[in-house]
Amino acid sequence: MLNRCQKQYPGLEISLPRIEVSQEVKVLYGNSFSNQEVLNVLDEKVQPQAKGVAIRVDGNTVGYVNNQATADRILAELKDSFGRKGEVGVLSVDGPDQVEQVQFVEKVSTSQVQVPPGIVMGEEKMMTKLRDREGPLLSVKTVKQVTETEKIGHETEIIWDDTTMAGRQEVIVEGKDGKKQVTIERTKVDGQIIEEKVIREDVLENPVTEKIKKGTKESQGKGTGKFIWPVLSPSITSTFGERWGKMHKGIDMTGNRVIMAADNGKVVNTGSRHDYGNYIIMDHMNGFQTVYMHLGKIDTSVGRIVEKGEKIGMMGSTGFSTGVHLHFEIHLNGDLQNPLKYLAQ
Question: 194: domain CATH number?
């Protein structure tokens, strides 16, 4: 019987319960003695036992394996597999993760037992049972220290300025994010983060506060009566007055192609005509009006209050024009004026 069990369950240490044999004389009438009947009775009555190791979680038996070495190997592999599971990447890691601790959340124990050989599991089957969480729940907790480089967001400071027109703003100082090195103690259960604790922070680069100047000055559009050139670096190509028997109502100029308002004012008309091309008319609310013609692009609209020096369009060659230039007129109380009388020389 023992030999048969050892062949059926290789790798297990099989034992049989102690069988006591006693001699007894009986007289049998008509029955012959049968060894096979005795063996059959022994098969029914005698149950073989195998030496094994029970794995328990919180006192509940999960199963049995053949020896302690197998149990230790299964638990070690389970810790290792869950310890690696669910790792997440970081933007910058300055050093390798330091594993402080890997342990089971539940109480896990093993003990030597004698059990029927048929219920002893193989290593792979026991691993699958624990990993797939059949039966008692078994979780692995890992605690690691990681060092990461993180961004320090910069702040924004608004500087209100009563000399700048409302609605205008200017970046005085560009903002810049800083950097810090952070050491974190990260706790996971079965690969899922359950807690993060900052152990240390070292600032590598301080952030730079962005400073923005915003205007509060309200303009009613009234001009100062003092005009600036409507383009930068102007070059006059045609002056005010009689030209080829006709009155030239303004001056023509080239220069930087950005067209600026010559004084504070209100845009009262924009449009396009065959002779003017694209044009803008501004009323300076003090008797003066200025006209800007042959624009390539209009960058303002009727009703808008603009400040002296504010961009209103781009130089072009639309309408009756022989080249890219600006035709500029000044009117005072409806009468044409020579712009050169009012523009700074």
Answer: 2.20.230.10
